Amino acid sequence: MDIDPAGPAPQDREDPRDPEAAQSPEVAQDLEVAPDPEVAQDTEAATGPEAATTPQAASRTSRAGRNLPVAIGVGAVLGGLVFLTLLTVKATFLLYVGVAIVLALTELASAFAKRGINIPVIPVAAGGAAVLTCMYWLGAQAALAALALTVVVIFAWRLPSGPSGFVKDVTAGVFALIYLPFLASFVAAMLSPADGPRRVLTFIILTISSDIGGYFAGITLGRHPMAPVISPKKTWEGFSGSAAACLAAGALCVTLLLHGHLWQGLLTGAAAVLAATLGDLTESMIKRDLDIKDMGTLLPGHGGILERLDSLLVVAPVVWLLLFLFIPVR
């Protein structure tokens, strides 16, 4: 998830490596923001002379520089779909996850292609679907077998294209397989037990709390950059807000939803905020390396699907493991 767990530092300048750091006033006026980590990282509060002279635009735009009401609306729709699928027929939530992963894969493949790296999308998507399905219905051993077989298929799929670029294409394919469907398969592992919806809800609330806490603490208090080389506008004050929100959410969710102990909730919250920050910084590093601003533009006010999934993907295995150790499967 892409709300900056560390928040923006108001004094920071645009990263000179960012391809959109210098753009026309018309483009700058149209940038939107969401309570999202890359929003606080990559866009300045003032986006150009036209934006500065438009009172309505100014009233709708947060200090990070994008349209906050639009971002909140999109986030509400996405969250509503989560609750609708998760709390009715839980297998439909797995389908929702699968669609999100496929869209994120196409964004990642498009971004890599700009650097001459071709991800074998078809075997990665098919194999990823097999990994998610096996994890939910057949368990970890079947999912691991599906993962290994998909790697073999990626090798075979790329052979007819010749030796030029073979290593980088195959490596990118395996990376995409691990980064997207494999990490997402831990959501399927959490969902599988009878109390799975409550486990998944705990995981989602923890990640969102980290994002929102970091965003608002960052835009109000952010002064000290946390990782200026990777994400110049992330701040330690924003990280503190993420930690406070995540600890509170962990304590409440683990005790009330899963009937665990307070210390278990606090430990789960602490681990989740660290994982969310790592996920956020990892996706930022990928974009810096590829020299792009956003992975996509599908979600107004947010960027691409991957901007919404970055924290969730890394938090999933961490929360799955702690809940597996702390809360007996029912």
Can you lay out the helices and strands and say which pair or pack?
Layout: H1 25-30, H2 37-42, H3 49-52, H4 55-60, H5 68-86, H6 90-113, H7 121-137, H8 140-158, H9 166-191, H10 196-221, E1 225-227, E2 231-235, H11 236-256, H12 262-290, H13 305-326
Antiparallel strand pairs: 1-2
Spell the H/E element sequence. HHHHHHHHHHEEHHH
The structure class reads mainly alpha
Number of separate domains: 1
- DSSP, total strands: 2
Specify the helix fraction band: 55-70%
Biggest beta-sheet profile: 2 strands, antiparallel
Low-confidence runs of at least 5 consecutive residues: 1-60
> What is the count of DSSP helices, taking H or I runs of 4+ residues?
13
Write down the overall mean pLDDT.
Answer: 83
- Inertia-based shape: globular
Order the strands across the largest sheet as they lie in space.
Answer: 1-2
As a percent range, the share of strand residues is under 5%
Measured distance between first and last alpha carbons: 29 Å
Rounded to the nearest angstrom, the radius of gyration is 20 Å
What does this entry look like structurally?
By secondary structure, the chain is an all-alpha fold. Helix content is 68%, strand content 2%. The chain has helices spanning 25-30, 37-42, 49-52, 55-60, 68-86, 90-113, 121-137, 140-158, 166-191, 196-221, 236-256, 262-290, 305-326; strands at 225-227, 231-235. Strands 1-2 form a two-stranded antiparallel sheet. α10 (196-221) crosses α12. Mean pLDDT is 83; it is low at 1-60.
